[in-house]
Amino acid sequence: MIVRGREHGLTCVELVVALVLAVAATAWMLPVTARAWRYADLEVTANRLLVHLRTMQQLAQTHGVYGLVRMSGFTPDYALYLGNGTQCLGQYAFLPGVNYFDGYLQLNTPNIQYDVAGNSQVGGVIRLVDGPDEADIHLYLGSGLQTLTMGGAGS
């Protein structure tokens, strides 16, 4: 259809402007999206570790043997054991980008052991970080209680 000598459609200038706007919007959204993914990875890692701690506590209570979570001191991974470290149930790594605060586990011992009553003699905080975001898993001495607190700029 022709309107006063001009066909409907986009000119080259209009296409370039639309392309520049699309590139600018994408460039603006990439850091925001990457930050959201990093925070999600941190949250998933912290929740998985918390679930594993609670699972080992429950297994110790129900099976009448010690449950052990052996945290690696300088690498972001851990293993689960039943019965004083004799039966390995699995080894798990943190998601990429998630690490301990300052790169190492800040507990007196890397072994979090639950007795047959579900109590642990390890207390402190496991602080996980991914960029400016952090997750704290609090271990309460003598009770076996664990809590998770998410913090940082992404929360």
List keywords for this structure.
155 residues, single chain, four-stranded antiparallel sheet, 10 strands, 31% strand, alpha+beta, minor pseudopilin epsh fold
Task: Describe the protein's architecture and organization.
This protein has 155 residues and is of the alpha+beta class. It has one domain (2-151): 3-Layer(bab) Sandwich (minor pseudopilin epsh fold), CATH 3.55.40.10. It has one helix at 12-63; strands spanning 2-3, 6-7, 67-71, 77-82, 87-93, 99-100, 111-114, 124-130, 133-139, 146-151. Strands 5-4-3-7 form a 4-stranded antiparallel β-sheet, with helices on one face. A 4-stranded antiparallel β-sheet has the order 6-8-9-10, with helices on one face. The model has no long low-confidence stretch (mean pLDDT 88).
Strand content: 25-35%
As a percent range, the share of helical residues equals 25-40%
Residue-averaged pLDDT, rounded? 88
Largest sheet: 4 strands, antiparallel
Q: Which fold name corresponds to the CATH topology?
A: minor pseudopilin epsh fold
How would you summarize what this structure contains?
The chain is built from one helix and ten strands; from the N terminus they run ββαββββββββ. The protein is α+β, with helices and mostly antiparallel strands and 155 residues long.
